Amino acid sequence: MKIGLISDTHIPEAMPELWPHVFDQFRDVECILHAGDIYDFSVLDRLEQIAPVYAARGNGEDGSGGREVQPNDHRVRETWTINLRGFNIGLTHYIPMPEIPPGLTIRKWKNRLFPDTHLDVLVYGDTHVEQIDLIDNTLCINPGSPTYPHNLSLQFGTIGFLYLDEPAPRAEIMQLTDSGTTPFDWAASRRPW
After folding, report:
1. What confidence tens digit (pLDDT) does each residue in 104-160 have?
2. Band of the pLDDT at 191, cuts 50, 70, 90?
3. CB-based contacts of 55: which residues, under 8 Å, 6+ apart?
4. 47-to-40, 105, 132 alpha-carbon distances in Å
5. Domain extents in the chain
6. Residues of 106-128 as b/e, b for ≥16 C-beta within 10 angstroms?
7. What tens digit of pLDDT does each residue of 58-115 get?
8. Given CA atoms 74, 75, 77, 83 in this order, what sign does their dihedral have?
């Protein structure tokens, strides 16, 4: 099972519509998880033409920065817990990354947002920084931003994929390019940690 991961699209602030590469890359996914800061839900309409969409409500949908408050939508919640192929997947916009112990830890945040649920996977956004970590037996994935990577100006960013076809879930980040995508080069990334 292949799942498309996206976050922090900022449409139409960034550009009128997502890069066409995103839709092309997601063409064979079984569902799409959007980790918030969608801004305008027309993005979800377009993604839903490809596969079912689950989205987290980010601060960009709640009128911050003078933007229009987005309406209630059955595809959008503060958090989702989705069971796919026997894996529990949590979806939200913000978690404390990097962790700041003792108060801001993934364990405490999972207990707050997803009480009494063991998460195999946690998909989040907010930072615009692509990241894959195994924390507290949970695969934590931030697909970054396809439009404003690392909170920089408009440019090709990243999307992600989650695979549930093995005994343990696995994920990858893809860099958008002029010609499509390429696997993300972690060694060359501008990650601050």
Report:
1. 888 888 999 999 899 999 999 999 999 999 998 999 999 999 999 998 899 999 999
2. very low
3. 33, 34, 35, 36, 38, 44, 73, 75, 76, 77, 91
4. 12, 32, 23
5. 2-183
6. beebbeebbeeeebbbbbbbbbb
7. 988 887 777 778 888 999 999 999 999 999 999 999 998 877 778 788 888 899 999 9
8. positive
CATH class of 2-183: alpha beta
What is the per-residue burial (b if ≥16 Cβ within 10 Å, else e) of 148-169? bbbeeeeeebbbbbbebeeeeb
Q: What is the pLDDT of residues 48-59, one digit of tens each?
A: 999 999 999 998
Which pTM was predicted?
A: 0.92
Task: Check: CB of residue 94 under 8 Å from CB of residue 35.
Answer: no
What residues are paired with 141 via a beta bridge? Answer: 123, 132
Q: Which of 10, 3, 8 is nearest to 124 (CA)?
A: 8
Tell which residue, 4, 182, 154, has the closest CA to residue 91. 4
